[in-house]
Write a structure and sequence with these properties.
With 371 residues, the protein is of the alpha/beta class. Helices cover 40% and strands 16% of the residues. The protein has 14 helices and 15 strands. Helix 6 (154-160) packs across helix 10.
Length: 371
Amino acid sequence: MSGLRVACVCGQSGAVSGLAPVLQKGRRGGWHIRVLSYGEAIAAFRHENISVELCEQSFSENDAILWLKEAAPEVVLLGTDAARHVEKRVVRAAKALGIPSVMYVDFWSNYSSRFEDDKGRTVPDVVAVLDAEMETRLQTCGIDRGKLHITGSPALEKASLIADIDPTKVCSLRIAAGLPKECVCVLFVSSPSYINYVSGSVSEDRHNSVLNPIMELASALDSCKELWNRKVYLVVRPHPREDVSAFNEIRFGNIRIRVEKEGTGLDWIAHSDLVVGLDTMLLVEAMMARRPVLCLAYSRPLIPAVSNIAKSMGVLVCEKENLLSAMSQMFSADSTGLVDNTSIQQILFSGATQRMIALVTEITERYKQRK
């Protein structure tokens, strides 16, 4: 719909990965966009060359009403956040003003808390979800099935585009990052591993829960370094909400360890020889980008959806006890750790951006017809 006025509100960088391709394509199609952002999403939007207006986490419903009146959107597009509540307040403000709202759920965890705050449960007109697994889980949490629409993930659609990246581009990315052209680059995509997303429990030993998987990975890399005859760099990509100072203690043998917060996770995935991590969306992005992937399953249970995707795509999932043998297997001849599973790929990303655009357009038209 050309000329559509869209307001976007988001504070979580993971949601930005999915919303940014939608906003960019919508703008090329004539959308007029205003973006309100806070937290780590500010830098994520700016990296995508999307200008933002800033707000604090204390942004209230009254603030939202004033902002929406001034922006005068025809529809509001939002991310979701389990711990912060700006998006929920904006949804309530939009309802009060008769403006339709669409929320995008970017990962398979914290289902209920994404829609709950001190005012109870707040559900938008439409919830865009990644797959049938997420749709079922949200129904179990009490979200009306009629509000749920499977769109897939625009973030994964974007990740799939780097699957055939030119090797010379990989070299230029490494050089720009200060890495030797011929090194082995192993990317560890971190996440708050002290949080058990399956049970909801939080480890009392947060510090070591974050560091131990990285130290064990570095040890395994050091033990099998004779496989490569090249320098090995372990690049740690922290989760936006992790305390980066915890990673300053990491040292291990001949393995060169770097902590990188600059650029995007997808940038680093593009020039890594191996991507290792727990159950994060970046790890799924690496799978869709056809990168060699090793999924660690020993510091907490894997989220079922991520486990199913990994198994369907032939990704190696290893326990602590077999990390060294898994590492050797990953770097054996002709071993990528991935198989071609078209059905999984189609569900998760094929056409996801366009489906999101169609969903936003449809709900806007529906509201106009009611008036």
